[in-house]
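Before relying on records like the one below, remember that each one covers exactly one chain. Contacts with other chains, cofactors or solvent are not represented anywhere in the record.
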Amino acid sequence: MNISSLLQGLATFAWIGFFGVLVLIFTRASRSQPVKGLSTIVGILLVVGLALTTAGAGVVFLQANEYGVVISAFQDKGYRKEALGPGLHWIIPFIESTQTYSVARQTYTMSSSSSEGAVQGDDSIQARTKDGQQIFIDASVIYAVDPTQLIQLHTLWQSRYEENVVRPVARAAIRNAVSQFGVEELVSTKRAELETAIRSEIESKLQANNIIMSDFLLRNIRFSDEYAAAVEQKQVAEQQAQQAKFVVESKKQEAEQARQTAQGQADAAVIASKGAAEARLIQAQAEAKANQLLSESLTPTLLQYQYILKLAPGVQTIFIPSGNQFILPLPNTSTGTTTTTPTTIP
């Protein structure tokens, strides 16, 4: 409660007391009762009531976010040239009055939701793109009254600035900006540019009407049901195309993987074959070398010795029928050819 309201409240109580005591005086006077002391009280209450009423009408207290335009009968234009700022002020009682304006930030919302907008019902902005598509926009304008231009604002609009300035300026700016873009641009890459264009136009026009715009919020963009259905079908088709492309790529990768596997197996088989062939070659070379060394190491004595070792162990004498040749030729230690001599026992 500010001091002006307090003074007016006290004045009200003084006047109530004044009239109450005055009634009491008339009542006692009609009964021939003394009213000497009551008359003094009535006088005091009358003076207090007049003083408090005058003070309450002359004292103006403005909050930190409030400015006031003084309406005065003593001024040529009907108001003071300078607005009153926050704090305690004195005006001429009963001749001057104050129109208070808030300079705090305010938000004006236009939305399709009845619980959000300043106007009940669907208050979204209908606009058409440059290719003729209809869209619906929810938006908010955050603004404040310019305290340095409050007198001018009061002269032009008084307290009707929100309805007669902020709302029409914002809606017109949104429609003008939307008409510069195609619907596909708004869906994809141009939303930020749209918001910038709207903000710039609203800011300049509000400033021309002594209002400062703090921010503009492009809350939502909605499309007609027909266009939304078409966009949805297009997205579904694109997703299906992407899926088909993914399947084709997967098949290609699988085929490439199979080819690489087959190539690897073929390369492994070739390497294995080469390895086996080289191993056989090395083995043959080793066997040939061994045979060569063995051939070089054989002597008649060694052969005879090896021949004897092959006989059954413990054989001291061999008997064969008379006149029959020995089935195994004895090695001939002479340098001539090997001959078989039948051995007989008489």
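The beta strands are 59-62, 66-72, 87-90, 96-102, 106-110, 125-128, 134-145, 211-223.
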